[in-house]
């Protein structure tokens, strides 16, 4: 029995190792590695299990009296039978009865053979079982649903970020791509006709009264537009009642290259409020300005925190290395938000940021900039100024440096800018190459700041994903920005982040306060308030253009910068430390110039009653600042001022009534309020005199026509606005 026991023990040890290996691979590996392991059984990975059966059968057969050779061929035949799960112990029954060890080892071999068969079956069928189960679970889910059109890594990131809705990838999925989705545990459906599928999901939404979200991000702009048109055509083919329900239930977000922004804007206008355009570069730029406003890095050396004015002799320089899509959008977003005011002999005026743009190409020649940012400069430089209200100043100073990063003068020019004065503050945004190229440049500039003994240079470097060493660089005033996967391809940022919620709240309150301004003696009850909310929401998506919606978002985006200018900031309400009370905030912000409020409240806040007494104070400085910031935003979007005659004479039809436009026409990008702060006073006087009728008081009419009040509203309501969105105001400067 010694030989039989030795062979049995060797087989038992090898099978135990194999069994442990199988269990470890099934339980201990990540999903993708586990699936790869199981799929390997189709390629014969489990054949080793059958090899263990041969010596066991041979030992048992020889023990029963057969010759060595007969035992060998008999063992092979019995092992072949095991492939089809034909378990036969008759030839080895004798040894099994005489040796409990041999019997146990044999049964373990049979278990491994069965396990191998199960894994082989799973390797052949599990992907189809999984796909069927995932689709069935999605279709039967009672949750809101998210449809991601496009099979790509960006949509995988959105898919992973969604935790509350049923979700699925929608595309024409090839078999080889289906394997990848299975590996990632991403539910998908492969379709032939987008039009038929979109009709089906919209009808399902209307039947179940469940909201659906769709993200169109295929990586192909023509395909994005085609799918968008399918949504639009489906909605347009419905009757009015169904379209109204679609507005409430269907939200579609369409990604597109900013080179085709005008095309996407036209498509969104046809979407009856259901479709929104997503410019990923704009989202990254907004995130950058929100997290890192220039004011965050400025100190008492640069800002008078008693007045929120930039000190005399301080220059603010922004150096952009590379002027591709990312830095172009950062420039536009920064111009529309990183605005400052300073004291002059003529009063409070704009303090322009100086933008130094480094690119080997002639970056000032740009069709998109000629359409938007440069339009005001190109069309209003030679106009007769008497035809206009006082024209606003250009929002920034630009200096173009036609240099490659390898040019011998590159570092010299950056050094000249950053060392021109110790009282200046300098910012560098690096976005010219790959992540590694950008990081390498950042590290070189960090070294240069030490060589030049520069302490007022803050560096921002574009990286598309996560990289090691971020913390080390931040210690040297260098920050990573524009992480696409956390900023752009995240469902919370797509559907509506904090800034988006703020802007919608401001839009509702704007409508409310406009109604109060027009009807000062009217009582606002709950029913009227709900009507105003519903109207504001519909107008936000249906009536307002993308530029108008962005204007509200950029207004709220500027809030952090404005607070910084007062030595304040805002943070999530659950952050450590105490926030300011409403009274503490108002004392810092308004001082002796408190807003006038009455007993009326709405949205949980007092309603401010604005008159024309805008007295000198920090509060007025910040209102001037907001108007100049709004001017900058409008100019960055290619808006030009209206002439006086357009303000006084142009009309349009609204709800079957002829009304004056006051020079505002978003279709042609023109606005009557695009003027200086003092020009707004002239605007209200002009329009009040135009509309004055016998028996009406001119001063009362001027109050109705005043638009300066809107420049006060953001900071007057800041405490309420931040509290409503889960934030608190804190002190950052003592």
Question: Please, could you describe this protein's structure?
Answer:
The chain has 734 residues and is α/β, with parallel strands linked by helices. It folds into four domains: 2-125, no CATH class; 141-278, NAD(P)-binding Rossmann-like Domain (Rossmann fold); 284-491, 3-Layer(aba) Sandwich (Rossmann fold); 528-731, no CATH class. Strands 3-2-1-4-5-6 form a six-stranded parallel beta sheet, with helices on both faces. Strands 13-12-9-14-15-16 form a six-stranded parallel beta sheet, sandwiched between helices. A two-stranded antiparallel ribbon has the order 7-8. Helix 1 runs parallel beside helix 6 (100-140). The longest helix has 41 residues, at 100-140. It is elongated.
The biggest beta sheet reads: 6 strands, parallel
Alpha-beta content class: alpha/beta
Distance between the ends: 90 Å
**Poorly predicted residue ranges:** none
Q: Please give the share of residues in helix.
A: 40-55%
Mean pLDDT: 88
Summarize the structure.
With 734 residues, this protein is of the alpha/beta class. The chain is 53% helix and 15% strand.
Could you give the topology of this structure?
Layout: H1 2-27, H2 31-39, H3 47-63, H4 68-83, H5 93-98, H6 100-140, E1 145-149, H7 153-161, E2 166-171, H8 175-184, E3 188-190, H9 194-208, E4 212-216, H10 221-236, H11 240-249, E5 250-255, H12 261-269, E6 275-278, H13 280-291, E7 303-304, E8 309-310, E9 316-321, H14 325-335, E10 340-344, E11 347-351, E12 354-358, H15 367-371, H16 375-380, E13 397-401, H17 410-418, E14 425-430, H18 435-452, E15 457-462, H19 470-474, E16 478-481, H20 484-487, H21 491-495, H22 498-518, H23 526-543, H24 546-557, H25 559-564, E17 568-572, H26 582-589, E18 597-602, E19 605-608, H27 618-636, E20 640-641, H28 644-649, E21 651-654, E22 657-660, E23 670-671, H29 677-691, H30 698-705, H31 709-716, H32 718-724, E24 727-731
Parallel strand pairs: 1-2, 1-4, 2-3, 4-5, 5-6, 9-12, 9-14, 12-13, 14-15, 15-16, 20-23
Antiparallel strand pairs: 7-8, 10-11, 17-24, 18-19, 21-22
Helix pairs in contact: 1-3, 1-6, 3-4, 3-6, 9-10, 13-14, 22-23, 22-24, 27-31, 29-30
